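Question thread 4412

I'm putting together a teaching handout and wanted feedback from people who do this every day. The idea is simple: show students a protein as raw sequence, then show them the C-alpha cells that encode its fold, then repeat with a second protein so they can compare. Below is the first pair exactly as I plan to print it.
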Amino acid sequence: PTPPPPPTPPHDRTRRQRQMCIRDRTIRLARSGAKKRPFYHLVVTDSAKRRDSGYIERLGFFNPLAQGQEVRLRIDIERVRQWQSKGARASDRVASLLKEYTKSAA
C-alpha cells in the first residue's frame, strides 16, 4: 500500500483551511433551565462549538419569563465591549438584547 501524503505546510493551505485553524469568537445565548422554562446565559464561545457546550466566559443572563420583581436581563457591558474589541461578534439576538439593555441603563 502507498503511504499517506505528508501534511501540507501552513503556507500551502487554502484560505478556508487557514480560517478553520483560527476560530472566531461569538457572543451568544446558551440555554439552561427546565423544560418549558427557558433561561439563557450570555456567553463567549468559539463559533464552531454547539449552543450549550463549554464556553470561555459568562457575561450575563437573560430570563424571558421574568415577572414582577425578577430581573429579566443582566449584562456585564464592560466585558462585552472588551470582547468585541478583540473581534468577538454578537449574534443577532444578543445584539438586540445589548441594545435593549443600554437603553434601559441610560
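The second pair follows. I'd like the answer to focus on this one:
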Amino acid sequence: YREPHYDDIHPNIEINYNYLEKSKILFVIPKYNGDSILNYPNFIKYIKEYSEKNNKILGLHGYMHRPEGYIKKAEFGYNNKEKDILDAINIFETFAEHSASGEEDL
C-alpha cells in the first residue's frame, strides 16, 4: 500500500491545493534549479504549519530536480556528487528543524 503523495513542492513551483489536500506525504525539493528553499522563510513557515495542522508527512525529493535533464530517469539515477547529496540532506534537515512559528533565523 502506498500513501497518496505530492511531489515537487518548492516556492518556485505553483502548488495545486487540491493535490496538497488529498496527499498524505509532501515531497519538498531542497534546491530547485539551484534555488534553496531556505531562501523562502515564509514558504517554510506556511508548509510546516500546513503539514502539522493537517497531519502530513514531509519528505526530501531530490536535490535540484531539473526534469529537463533526465527524461524517463530519476534524478538520483545519475552519478551525483556525494557533496550534492549531503547538501540536499542538510537543506532538508534545516527546513525540517525550522520552527513553524518562524522564530528561528535561517
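Top answer:
Good format. For the second protein you could add a caption like this: Helices lie at 17-22, 41-53, 82-97. DSSP finds three helices and five strands in the chain.
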